[in-house]
Design goal:
By secondary structure, this protein is α/β, with parallel strands linked by helices. It has 16 helices and 21 strands. α12 packs antiparallel against α13. β1 and β2 form a beta hairpin. The strands form six sheets. A six-stranded mixed β-sheet has the order 12-7-1-2-3-20, with helices on both faces. A five-stranded mixed β-sheet has the order 15-14-13-18-19, with helices on both faces. It has a four-stranded antiparallel β-sheet with strand order 8-11-9-10. It is globular and about 105 Å long.
Length: 540
């Protein structure tokens, strides 16, 4: 279908089984209309939601974008790319500040706590989202601490973090195809926003997305995200189990899973059933259907066990009054809600539990004629939710297959890819610079402490001067900062480096003052002053 303007939104989901792209428009009734859809297999590209082969992923994304453009008759200039993957998780950050005396909490104090809280807890990770959970002034819990009087303030934040490589690899592969990323929203968060009600989020619920190679879990309480994790285990493992144990090809194993998959089978009923009891493989072997169901059930129980382990880890397992909301391809399996209900009772020790499957979004979704996307199942709900999150038009120029236009587009894509590569190198260099600055600050402070203890030690004074002269902002720092200047997506990294430079300058000034004090103590007047001071002390 050809569209008449650029006012459409594009979303791309990098799944472990397929890469999907969608274009759509917001409608007057608060819903969306799908005007184009394309997908392609991600075999050998994506593992557990992480790009495993850059070259193949670039090609797969390019193929999806070209298919969308062919339907739209217009180029795709921008897109929203869903973010998932194994390293994605939440982390609780606790910050505290003691005041010298009882005083009013200012906006600056609140901001300083926030700035500390966003620092990643692990090397090679970055903070994607920072959510304030609770403020406590002295012993009083408040919604906003600004203006409150107290002698101390504590703040609790939920950070959603991921490995830097997760985001950087997505940026480079998408940029290679000449597409700018508007935003990379968290997939499970987008999905939860569109399949759960405010009432469910308020009373407490967990959304479980049963994907191919990952299972994502997000927990809500009081309308706020409280826990998030991506488990590197999904329903595609069942297909591999059948392939391995029963020695069948992948396509046949997948068909077996779909046809006979039962998350909570009744084996007694199956034995007395007069229906077909065996499955005949493509190579002529007969396999008991009960054997296949046991393979499927065993893996599903492992997945659900991991889900409940994470829900318990959230600390809210006993407070999810709205229960569990299941989504993703794995939620289509027969008796999936019964398995979760029974294991919920066993694991969480609750008699009354709520489990439902979210078959569709809460908002109306329609599609234009000819769009090959099925809205009859929930396998596309994550992709649709990424689209709903968008609000920036993503259309480019009209596609007329002009060779000159295509060459220009290819040149622009190559240039953007080069720029992104430079940005990634700059971020890596800033990480090295930050560590170097921290070491230098430690050396300056240590030398200041040593010199303070013995101002008359000439050898120590000489060494302190050498340390001071050698200290300074690394040469590569300014060049790296210049590369990311003005780019909002790197503002956290930029601020961290600038803050460290300020700390370095303060440490330099402190040591410089101490060197001046030591030089004065070693001068003739300084020695005379010291002698007079010693004599006065003796008289006393």
């Amino acid at each position: 279908m050809a569209t008449t303007d650029k006012d459409f939104i594009v979303a791309i989901e990098l799944g472990s089984s397929k890469i999907s792209g969608i274009a759509g428009k917001k409608t007057a009734d608060g819903g969306v209309q799908i005007i184009a859809y394309a997908s392609g297999k991600s075999d050998g590209c994506i593992r557990h939601g992480i790009i495993s082969n850059e070259v193949k992923t670039k090609q797969a994304i390019g193929d999806v974008v070209k298919k969308l453009e062919a339907q739209l008759k217009m180029s795709v200039k921008r897109a929203y790319i869903g973010l998932g993957g194994q390293s994605l998780r939440s982390h609780i950050a606790l910050e505290k500040k003691d005041l010298l005396s009882k005083a009013s909490i200012t906006e600056q104090i609140k901001e300083s706590l926030h700035d500390e809280s966003v620092k990643p807890p692990y090397p090679e990770y970055e903070t994607l989202i920072n959510i304030p959970l609770e403020y406590k002034v002295d012993s009083k819990i408040v919604a906003d601490p600004v203006g409150e009087f107290g002698t101390s303030i504590e703040a609790q934040y939920l950070n959603i973090i991921a490995k830097e490589s997760l985001c950087n690899n997505i940026r480079s592969t998408v940029a290679f195809n000449g597409v700018d990323i508007v935003d990379m929203p968290i997939q499970i968060k987008c999905l939860a926003d569109n399949i759960t009600s405010d009432v469910e989020k308020s009373s407490g619920c967990a959304v479980v997305d049963l994907g191919a190679e990952t299972t994502s879990v997000i927990v809500y309480k009081n309308k706020t995200e409280r826990y998030l994790v991506v488990i590197p285990l999904g329903v595609a493992t069942i297909t591999k189990d059948i392939m391995s144990i029963k020695q069948v090809e992948e396509a046949e194993a997948e068909n077996i899973k779909i046809k006979y998959g039962d998350a909570y089978p009744d084996y007694n009923a199956a034995e007395g059933d007069s229906k077909q009891r065996t499955y005949r493989t493509a190579d002529g072997r007969n396999i008991e259907i009960i054997e296949l169901q046991k393979i499927i059930e065993a893996r599903m129980r492992e997945i659900v066990t991991n889900v409940f382990a994470q829900i318990r880890k959230s600390g809210l397992a006993d407070n999810l009054l709205s229960g569990l909301i299941l989504a993703g391809g794995g939620s289509n399996m027969k008796n999936i809600t019964k398995l979760f209900e029974e294991m919920y009772k066993e694991s969480i020790k609750q008699e009354q539990v709520k489990v439902r499957v979210a078959n569709k979004l809460l908002i109306p979704v329609t599609k234009a004629s000819g769009v090959g996307l099925s809205l009859d199942n929930n396998t596309s709900n994550t992709l649709l939710s990424i689209l709903v999150k968008g609000d920036t038009p993503c259309g480019g120029d009209t596609k007329d297959n002009n060779l000159f236009d295509n060459a220009a587009a290819a040149e622009a894509a190559a240039q953007r890819s080069k720029e992104l590569e430079e940005e990634n190198k700059a971020i890596a260099k800033l990480k090295e610079v930050n560590e170097q600055i921290r070491r230098t600050v430690d050396q300056l402070n240590d030398m200041k402490r040593q010199l303070s203890k013995n101002l008359k030690d000439k050898k120590l004074l000489k060494k302190a001067q050498e340390v001071y002269d050698a200290a300074g902002e690394p040469e590569e720092c300014k060049a790296a900062l210049a590369v990311i200047e003005g780019k909002d997506k790197y503002k956290t990294q930029k601020k961290e480096t600038e803050d460290l430079i300020a700390v370095l300058e303060a440490a330099q000034d402190d040591l410089d003052d101490k060197i001046a004090e030591a030089k004065k103590a070693g001068s003739v007047l300084g020695k005379l002053h010291s002698m007079i001071k010693d004599l006065l002390n003796d008289d006393n």
